[in-house]
Amino acid sequence: MSLVKTMLAHPATRGRDLDDPAVTGARRGILESKPFLMEVYRSWYAQVARALPAGDGPVVEIGSGAGFAAREIPGLISSEVFFLPHVDLVADALALPFARSSVRALVLVDVFHHLPDPARFLEAAAACVRPGGKILMVEPWVTGFSSLVYKNLHHEPFDPTAATWGFGKKGPLSGANQALAWIVFSRDLALFRERFPQWSLKAVQPRTPFAYLLSGGLSLRFCPPGWSWPLVRDLERAAARWMGRLAMFAFIELERTRDAG
User: Fold this and answer.
1) Is the dihedral of CA 97, 98, 101, 104 positive or negative?
2) What is the pLDDT of residues 60-76, one digit of tens each?
3) DSSP string over 4-22
């Protein structure tokens, strides 16, 4: 299967160091070159935008990387762990540089599973997100179908059986466990609620069973034409009752309900 993945890998990033900022720049170019994949991301950003809380305070995206959320969410502040010319702020998700209770929402799209210490992130976020503010995420999710795909076709580690939430100090992109959001917000939900009573889990909505896979994502070379997006979108809507078995991602909404300190 590794030979298949090598053959399908996008030539712009094949064999390159994932932690090199230039690779993130190359992935931004890959995204721009795939209209179908752009529509997948727009659907994610639209769901995030609909869930944003009203009121004052900045909306900050963590790990903006190759994405374009700032185009879809007016006023969004983009950030990344290393400098990129199109990103507003260099920031570490484990040591967020914002005043206490000042942030309206934190947005993470395909980022949470790269955090080596998610508990530390949730603590840092609780300090800077105001009461009523939110963390809004789109993350890989564990289902029977997604497990087959992530284990066999994706380059990132996928371990739903991991005993701990973290995975030690690794590079910002090479370090990962694609099952991490499912572990924290499903398998270990009781532990999450015990450890972080200042966060209320408002929604977990499994989604995107086919579109991202068909697009080839940011790592694989293939992608259907942009005009086919409405067909696949409608197919996914028709499959809504089977999302618990088929979904590859989930939209996750957390609300800050108590003082962090």
Assistant:
1) negative
2) 999 998 899 999 999 99
3) HHHHHB-TTTTTS-TTSHH
